C-alpha cells in the first residue's frame, strides 16, 4: 500500500474456520480409535497443517488506494494480488456462483476470489479481456470507491 487505504474490508473465511478444526478433531478421533498409532505423531502432522491453512487462507482482505486495488487471503500476506485501477474497464455488481464454492477458483482469464458460497460480489472486467470477481458483502460500496478513482478517458 503506497499510502493510507481509501477502502479496507476484512471478511473472515468462516467455513474454513469451522471445517478445518472439525477435520483435526475427526483425525485425532480416528487415531484414538484405530489402536496403537502414536497420537503425538498425528498431532505433530495435523495441527501444523491446520494452523498453516488458517494462516494462509483464514480471511479475505480487500484494500483500495488512489491507484491500486489489492486483495489477499490469510494473515501472513503471502497469497496476494493487485490491479492497477487503470487496468479496469468495467465494474459490475454481481453474485458469485454457488456452484463455484469458496476460495480461489477459475483460470488466468476468469478468476474468482471469495470466502462465501454464492454471496454478493464485484465483477471487474479488465482492458485485456480478463475478469476478476471479488466476493464482498458490500459490492455497492466497493464499486463506488473504485468507480470514483478510475482514470477518466481522454
CATH architecture label name of the largest domain: Roll
- CATH fold topology of the largest domain: PH-domain like
Helix percentage: 25-40%
Q: Describe the biggest sheet?
A: 5 strands, mixed
Nearest-integer average pLDDT: 88
CA radius of gyration is: 19 Å
Distance between the ends:
27 Å
The protein's oligomeric status is single chain
Number of helices: 3
Basic shape: elongated
Element string (H = helix, E = strand): EHHEEEEEEEEH
| Strand coverage percent | 25-35%
Strand order of the biggest β-sheet? 5-8-9-7-6
Number of domains: 2
Q: Got a strand count?
A: 9
User: What class would the helix/strand composition place it in?
Assistant: alpha+beta
What low-confidence regions span 5 or more consecutive residues with pLDDT below 50?
none
| CATH first level of the largest domain | Mainly Beta
Question: What are the salient characteristics of this protein?
Answer:
2 domains, single chain, PH-domain like, 32% helix, elongated, 154 residues, 4-stranded antiparallel beta sheet, alpha+beta
Amino acid at each position: 500500500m503506497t499510502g493510507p487505504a481509501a477502502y479496507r474490508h476484512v471478511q473472515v473465511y468462516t467455513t474454513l474456520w469451522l471445517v478445518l478444526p472439525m477435520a483435526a478433531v475427526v483425525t485425532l478421533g480416528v487415531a484414538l480409535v484405530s489402536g496403537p498409532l502414536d497420537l503425538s505423531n498425528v498431532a505433530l502432522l495435523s495441527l501444523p497443517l491446520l494452523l498453516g491453512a488458517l494462516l494462509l487462507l483464514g480471511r479475505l482482505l480487500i484494500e483500495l488506494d488512489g491507484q491500486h486495488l489489492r486483495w489477499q487471503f490469510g494473515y501472513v500476506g503471502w497469497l496476494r494480488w493487485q490491479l492497477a485501477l487503470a487496468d479496469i474497464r468495467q465494474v459490475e455488481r454481481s453474485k458469485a456462483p454457488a456452484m463455484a464454492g469458496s476460495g480461489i477458483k477459475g483460470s488466468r482469464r476468469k478468476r474468482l476470489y471469495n470466502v462465501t458460497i454464492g454471496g454478493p460480489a464485484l465483477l471487474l472486467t479488465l482492458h485485456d479481456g480478463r475478469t476478476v470477481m471479488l466476493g464482498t458483502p458490500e459490492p455497492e460500496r466497493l464499486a463506488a470507491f473504485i468507480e470514483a478513482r478510475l482514470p477518466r478517458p481522454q
